[in-house]
Design brief:
By secondary structure, the chain is mostly beta strands. The chain has one helix and 46 strands. The termini are far apart. A hairpin with an 8-residue loop joins strand 24 and strand 25. The protein folds into five domains: 80 residues, Immunoglobulins (Immunoglobulin-like, Sandwich); 129 residues, Sandwich (Jelly Rolls); 41 residues, no CATH class; 119 residues, Jelly Rolls, CATH 2.60.120; 112 residues, Sandwich (Immunoglobulin-like), CATH 2.60.40.10. Strands 2, 4, 7, 8 and 9 form a five-stranded mixed β-sheet that branches. The chain has a five-stranded mixed β-sheet with strand order 10-12-19-14-17, with no helix packed on it. It has a five-stranded mixed β-sheet with strand order 11-13-18-15-16, with no helix packed on it.
Length: 562
């Protein structure tokens, strides 16, 4: 008998889920996902990023005006708090996220630096301008050349070249004999990455005048009106960083402030800086200025001073000079140099093509000097050439550009006791009203500078915070520098730290902060002092986008304890 063997396969079982069971499963998963998302949202809100401000729009307002300004950026929580660097503005966050209600005092003028802050930290400081002229906001139909935005008269227009190919056009009625001044502020102060262009056209769009780089990357032009009629002021831009496109550029951060005026307009003053310890008389230069607006008295300041002449625009920001300031006299040629006492800061002008200005100073044999000319860095067109000559006119030292900068800096060691001349001229032999400069002549003295890599810091109670500080020792400075923190909020402490002349701390140190509790948020300072025959005291600074000078007011935020 033969047996047949066979392997039996297991039968497949079919599992069926009813529609009700499936819907219950989906509902449960939805609840689980919702619960997870809610928990994640609470976690993110508890650890939100600090406010971030890219720009304001509008970027300024008129004296005595109240205006709603929108902040472009990112905000984890709203409302926020607002810090302003000086008196003159009242700022209140609106209910709508990103909006601020700002009121300028009747005497407010110039650039104000604002920060938004909350319990998580602070934004970088961003500028807002206050002026005397009426302020308007661009109406977007003005990108059609056949539909320019009409202006009633002299005014300041806040606009934005928001997209590629954007061209903004404004129209106004002008009279024969008037002088129109058009000045655009974008890359300077606001830090907009745009290389702007300005045009004045007739009513048919024919270009009568054009400028693109009168003040660095920002354009400015004047136009004498030869006949009554309607005229157009047109602006567009290219990117500061060139790219492969051949087109007008635009973006959300292409924000500008355009002054269009036939009224008094101040381009610059002489001198170009003010004293720290006394008032300074400034002579005004520009267009449409009445005779009684020839001078203005500027108060003393610490870092910068805002100056706004009565019935004129715009407000000017002047630096505070470390030495006596004076204006070049009529007699300042190489044949009849102007004698000066050093150290000194001199403001002058190359008035005509191929003109040269010369200043005579005394120096001892072996004495080291630093001479520098500022013009391009201040927004003026002079491409300076700086020379030091002896009594017979022989050139002993010369400087054209200082590295990548178009302004010259020169180090000079006197070969003998006697008189020497500092000679300034334009490299290309140009000259004119705006070919102004500031010349500093000072003996080389050992000193130091402290810099920070960040503008704000965040510390958590119970966790020490290290703040790196870069130490730059100039002219062989070999002193011991003690660095302390000033203006710390209650409950925050920092032990002094020392930078020694040699070793690891000579070029960099770390100051350690500790906090007991939070939250709090405030500006503070890191200050270095050095004893000696000439005591030194300098606050650590950090660069600010668009600002002509660094800031010495970093921000400290103490968060809640974990």
């Amino acid at each position: 008998m033969q047996l047949a063997l066979s392997a039996s396969r297991p039968k497949k079982r079919l599992y069926r889920i009813s529609q009700i069971e499936f819907l219950s499963f989906v509902s449960a998963m939805r609840c689980l996902i919702t619960s997870f998302a809610f928990t994640l949202m609470l976690h993110l809100e508890a650890h939100a990023a600090p406010p971030k401000v890219d720009s304001w729009f509008p970027a300024g307002l008129q004296q005595g005006q109240t205006l709603t300004v929108t902040a472009a950026g990112a905000f984890g929580a709203w409302p926020v708090k607002v810090w302003v660097d000086r008196e003159g503005l009242n700022v209140e966050p609106s209910e709508k996220k990103g909006e601020l209600k700002i009121t300028a005092a009747p005497q407010a003028a110039g650039v104000y630096w604002l920060r938004l802050y909350d319990e998580e930290g602070a934004s970088a400081p961003r500028p807002l301008l206050v002026g005397a002229l009426p302020e308007a906001v661009e109406v977007e139909t003005n990108d059609d050349p056949l539909k320019p935005q009409a202006l009633a008269g002299s005014s300041v227009v806040h606009g934005k070249l928001a997209k590629r190919g954007d061209v903004d056009t404004y129209s106004l009625e002008l009279k024969q004999g008037q002088t129109l001044v058009a000045s655009l502020l974008a890359n300077n102060t606001f830090g907009a990455p745009m290389d702007g262009v300005l045009q004045v056209c007739n009513a048919d769009g024919f270009v009568l005048a054009q400028n693109d780089d009168e003040r660095g990357y920002d354009p400015q032009l004047t136009f004498p009106v030869s006949r009554d009629g309607k005229y157009l002021v047109r602006t567009f831009a290219f990117p500061v960083e060139p790219n492969s496109s051949i087109a007008f550029a635009g973006a959300e951060n292409y924000v500008y402030r355009l002054t269009i005026s036939t009224e008094p307009f101040v381009d610059h003053t002489l001198p170009l800086a003010v004293r720290a310890d006394e008032s300074t008389e400034l002579r005004l230069f520009g267009w449409n200025l009445p005779s009684d607006a020839a001078t203005v008295i500027a108060p003393p300041g610490e870092v910068r001073v805002s100056v706004l002449a009565p019935a004129a625009s715009p407000a000017l920001e002047l630096a505070v000079a470390p030495h006596p300031v004076l204006t070049a006299t009529e007699e300042r040629s190489p044949e009849t140099p102007q004698p000066v006492e050093t150290p000194v800061v001199i403001a002058g002008r190359i008035e005509t093509p191929k003109d040269q200005d010369a200043f005579r100073f005394q120096a001892a044999k072996g004495q080291k000097w630093t001479l520098r000319v500022e013009s391009r860095s201040l927004g003026f067109p002079l491409d300076g050439l700086l020379q030091v000559t002896d009594g017979e006119g022989k050139v002993l030292a010369e400087s054209d550009d200082a590295g990548k900068e178009r302004d010259p800096v020169l180090a000079f060691t006197a070969p003998a006791d006697g008189a020497y001349q500092a000679v300034v001229r334009d490299l290309h032999g140009h000259g004119g009203l705006r070919y102004v400069y500031q010349l500093t002549i000072e003996p080389e003295t050992p000193d130091f500078r402290l810099t920070l890599a960040a503008d704000s810091f965040v510390i958590t109670p119970g966790k020490p915070l290290e703040i790196p500080i870069t130490v730059e020792r100039r002219n062989s400075f070999a002193g011991e520098i003690e660095i302390i923190a000033e203006g710390l909020p209650p409950g925050v402490a920092a032990a002094p730290v020392k930078s020694l002349p040699s070793g690891d701390t000579a070029k960099a140190v770390k100051l350690i902060l500790t906090a007991e509790s939070g939250p709090t948020s405030t500006p503070f300072q890191l200050v270095g002092t050095a004893a000696g025959d000439t005591p030194r005291r300098h606050a650590a600074t950090f660069p600010v986008s668009g600002a002509a000078a660094p800031s010495a007011q970093p921000w400290l935020t103490v968060t809640k304890a974990n």
